[in-house]
Amino acid sequence: MSKSSRSLPIETDRLVLRCFERRDLEALSDYHVLPAVQRYAFTRTRDRDQVAEALKVMAGHVSLQRAGDTLTLAMIRKSDQQLLGHVSLHWTDSTASQGEVRFIINPVHAGFGFAREALSALFDLAFGHFHIHRLMVRSDGRNHHSIKLMQGLGMRLEAHYREHALFQGEWDEELHFAILDREWQQSSKVRELPPRHRVA
User: Fold this and answer.
1) CA-to-CA distance for 122 and 172, rounded, in angstroms?
2) Mapping DSSP to helix (H, G, I), strand (E, B) and coil, where does residue 55 land?
3) Domain boundary assignment for the chain
4) Which residue, 185, 186, 40, 188, is CA-closest to 101?
5) Contacts of 175 (CB under 8 A, 6+ apart)
6) Residue 169 — pLDDT band, cuts 50, 70, 90?
7) How far apart are CA 157 and CA 96, in angstroms?
8) Which residues have a Cβ under 8 Å from the Cβ of 37 and sit 6 or more positions away?
9) Are 135 and 123 in contact (CB under 8 A)?
10) Do the beta carbons of residue 70 and residue 62 sit within 8 Å?
């Protein structure tokens, strides 16, 4: 399991998913320091200097060679080359081919379907290129938009952790969603069917 350079960047209808570059610092700073973003960020940041360090880390997330590696891709809007957020694929277990997906979108650009578009492409990459068997995603139990997104991607709720950790002085509610490779492939076939053939 390793990344071929031919798999990147990834293009969707409205986005290009590419590795981070130094020029992304300003746009990354716009959202990475927000308290709500820190909940699931790989690297915690509070100011521009820390964002610069986080950018260096994420810019190094360019391949999956062994368990523990992470691939992080900047979510770039084609129309204006604006950085909207990013998605990450973390290879958690090589024996069972398990992966964890994380995503962050600048709240300014939320609600337009960009996260779903980027995650669909990342799921295709994880299952089709890296041959991951199962993907999981964590979500704040109070983030109804994220929950709806996970359900829309065909993921099922596998765990609900109540008050299991303190975050910013409050007990959090963490949900774990997951999907198997065959489930994603089946849902992809359904999405590709003409409307009259789709199962209600």
Assistant:
1) 27
2) helix
3) 9-192
4) 40
5) 138, 139, 140, 141, 147, 150, 157, 159, 160, 161
6) confident
7) 20
8) 31, 104
9) yes
10) no
| Strand pairing category for 134-140 and 98-105 | parallel
Rounded Cα–Cα distance for residues 43 and 13 (Å): 29
Q: Is 82's pLDDT higher than 60?
A: yes
Question: For residue 5, what pLDDT is reported?
Answer: 43
How far is the CA of 89 from the CAs of 80, 121, 126, 161, 196, in angstroms? 25, 11, 8, 22, 35
Return the residue matching tokens 């669909």. Answer: 120
Fill in the amino acid letter for 2. Answer: S
Question: What CATH number should be reported for the domain whose range is 9-192?
Answer: 3.40.630.30
- The size of the chain, in residues, is 200
pTM of the entire structure?
0.88
HEC letters along 4-53: CHHHCCEECCCEEEECCCHHHHHHHHHHHCCCCHHHCCCCCCCCHHHHHH
User: pLDDT band for position 3 (50/70/90)?
Assistant: very low
Burial class (CB in 10 A: 0-12, 13-18, 19+), 42: middle
Give the per-residue pLDDT at 24.
97
Residue that has been written with the tokens 């746009």 in this structure: 27
How far apart are the C-alpha atoms of 51 and 25, rounded to whole Å?
Answer: 7
Q: What's the one-letter identity of residue 28?
A: L
User: Which residue in the block uniquely carries the two structure tokens 């969603």?
Assistant: 177
